[in-house]
Amino acid sequence: MRGLVDSHCHLDAAEFNADRDAVVDAALAAGVHTLVVPAVARSNFDVVLQLSQHYPCCAPAIGIHPLYVEQSQPEDLDALRDKLRDTQLVAVGEIGLDFFVELVDRKTQEYFFTEQLKLAREFDLPVILHVRKSVDDVLKHLRRIPVPGGIAHAFNGSRQQAEIFIAMGFKLGFGGAMTWPRALHLRELAATLPPESLVLETDAPDISPDFLERGMPNKPEYLPRIAQTLAQLRGVLVEEVEQMTTANALAALPRLAGFCV
Q1: What is the DSSP pairing of strand 58-62 with strand 91-96?
Q2: What is the band of 55 on the pLDDT scale with cuts at 50, 70, 90?
Q3: Could you count the other beta carbons within 10 Å of the beta carbon of residue 84?
Q4: What is the mean pLDDT of the chain?
């Protein structure tokens, strides 16, 4: 195995429309050899799948994001089921709950989340989870509808919650938020959680690291600098972090082995 895995990158985002080829080339040049690209709604299922056909380094996942459920319809779940027959898909995602944005109806979020968990179980696929301000509720549903593991993206819960996810077979995503010196709790988790539980991500173009100029989009090429922060926090060489997090990403999303890791 060689190169880093960006386990969460929205390469299809409008921010990259003008220079997507350059963004991918820069990531590859920086040593980021695989980008996991999750969909957020039915409207971009095909876009994400087409990206994976155009860029061999892009591993697609599809799902309905909790902040997109109010523009979604129950029949979108039928479309998702049809797409999940594609063996190139590495996960069902991005799915989950978001209770930070209070205007999005919780019951609607939970309906789409639980139905997608059922699909993940049906197709024996891991999931990529959105867990903002909702970790306990996400865990509640996972206990009721167990799935083949996956990644809790942008994890920022408690140590106890982290340990529950790990016990359930999940990896925890750490990215740009970890680079901010004031993120003391997150940095402590990154430094002390079991090494086999961590994966790296950018969430590009979002969750910018502290070294990026304000207002500039995050990009997968910055992942090596994020990896350097994790290495410093854990007191190890960055090469060890690269090997560890790549192996962890492959363990979380086994179909990644078919991409250019």
Answers
A1: parallel
A2: very high
A3: 18
A4: 96
Span 157-183, pLDDT tens digits? 999 999 999 999 999 999 999 999 999
Average pLDDT over residues 112-137: 98
Distance CA 140, CA 136 (A): 6
CA distance 203 to 50: 19
List beta partners, residue 36: 59
| 3-class state of residue 27 by DSSP | helix
Q: Which helix (H) or strand (E) holds 30?
A: helix 20-30
HEC letters along 120-183:
HHHHCCCEEEECCCCHHHHHHHHHHCCCCCEEEECCCCCHHHHHHHHHCCEEEEECHHHHCCCC
Q: Given a cut of 70, is residue 260 above it in pLDDT?
A: no
Helix (H) / strand (E) containing 108 = helix 106-123
What is the average pLDDT across 97-107?
Answer: 93
Residues whose CB falls within 8 Å of the CB of residue 116, separated by 6 or more in sequence, listed in order: 63, 64, 77, 80, 92, 95, 127
Both tokens of 245, joined, read 């997090």
- Under DSSP, the state recorded for 193 is S
pTM here is 0.97
Q: Express each pLDDT in 220-241 by its tens digit.
A: 999 999 999 999 999 999 999 9
Separation of alpha carbons 128 and 163, rounded Å: 17
Q: Which CATH superfamily is domain 4-258 in?
A: Metal-dependent hydrolases (3.20.20.140)
